[in-house]
# Entry
Amino acid sequence: MNTVCEIQGEIQSLKKEKDICILAHSYQGREIIEAADFTGDSYKLSVDASKVTNKNIVFCGVHFMAETAKMLSPQKHVYLANMEAGCPMAEQMEPEMIEMIKAQDPERKVVAYINTTAALKTLSDVCVTSSSAVKIVSAMEDKKILFIPDCNLGAYVQKACPDKDIRLLQGGCPVHAAVDINDLKQAKAKHPDALVLVHPECQPAVSEMADYVGSTSGIMNFAKRSDAKEFIIGTEMSIAEHLQYECPDKDFYILSKKILCPNMKLTTLMDVYRICKAIGSEQAKANEIIMSDELISQAGKCIDEMLRLG
Ligand code: 13P
Ligand code: SF4
# Structure
């Protein structure tokens, strides 16, 4: 067994034999996307995870995503294909700091981006993803909101919901936030006819110059449906590659080489094969997401609220 196709074939057999469902975030490489049962952005994968009927879930993405899948399907065994894959943004804020702000300003509802640890979710009233944040915040009766941890996404939500009073803290995705207005000007100078599609985790100055701002799935759907032929993609660079593969008659350019998430790139097809093979043995335990019933019930409430409002 040595070619990509052969490994993918082995994974398919293991999935059937061991009742495994593979969920992969769209930032994963093509060979993993092809082996997965469900792919998409954080919101879509949360909805998919809540509906999976298999006994075992293998998640290809980062730790908070597998944790979310576990909260949505607590009776299932959930494994993260590569346990080193974390999201630096998810761990940016200490729960103690949020507790302190809540105590000072108890009226303010806490809206947590899904890219947070379960401990932070226990302190939050509702969770959002990049595709559902505006919809959920608009639907909330409360005016005063503390939005954690991504201040760029929070600023984007504030702009879309001017009647809300959104307090932001300094935090965000180091990958998307690294792109600045000069990168955008350079990309535009090279491809003047291309539409610019960016993720709301980018700096507000970058989002303001874009033709479209949306989640990973939002960007992909926009590009597929658009009549335009050229696009500058302002999100993780794998998306430009997937779109190029899916829409060969169009041209996709990356906004900057800086938008490469090293954590999302940690998972390899061999990791997926290894965990599928190990499921059912002691070895798989090292990759299993284990959470107490109490943590699942406390942190899961804001995920359920997200699915209700989103
Ligand atoms: P979405 O999946 O909501 O687009 O978020 C992108 C991201 O950075 C995931 O870690
Ligand atoms: Fe976290 Fe940003 Fe990577 Fe997404 S792209 S996993 S938010 S560091």
